[in-house]
Amino acid sequence: MKWIIRISCVCALTLILAGCNQQQAKEKSVTQNDTVQPIEIKVSGKQFESNKVLAVVELKNPNEQALTLTFPTSQRFELKIKDADQKVLYTFSQEQVFTQAIEQERFKGLETKRYEVKVELPASSHPTRIEAMTIRQVKDQSTSITKAESELLN
Fold first, then answer.
1. How many beta carbons lie within 10 A of that of residue 58, not counting itself?
2. Is 90 exposed, middle or buried (0-12, 13-18, 19+ CB in 10 A)?
3. In what helix (H) or strand (E) does residue 55 lie, and over which residues does it extend?
4. Whose CB has fewer CB within 10 Å in the chain, the N or C terminal residue?
5. pLDDT at residue 129 is higher than 70
6. What pLDDT, on a 0 to 100 scale, did the predictor assign at position 22?
7. C-alpha Rg value of the chain to the nearest Å
């Protein structure tokens, strides 16, 4: 009879400890997600010939912990070049072909990934601005867009 009581106590104690451990893991997960900052994006561009532009897009993880981004396609960013009247002269996605598969990319803590795009524009165009944005989804967070703009350098 004593062994039945002992086994019952051990089982009850095990269930209580397992429940507490799961609650702590859940609270830790929520706390980590609350402190995750969204990916940062920077864009710059330089006109190196009368009709050619070198665009540089940088995606940075501003967090000290690693971050995994989920992209709906192989496209990591959208890039547009505009003139002084805000007319779009170039759109990156119209010139490229992307795989239609969900892809994940891991960023180490504080890591920056750099992408360069060389663009040839019509000879009559006069680009002045460049903008970039990314559509991304951090695990367990909703999809969002981060955008950056800058003046083109000559």
1. 16
2. buried
3. strand 52-60
4. N
5. yes
6. 58
7. 25
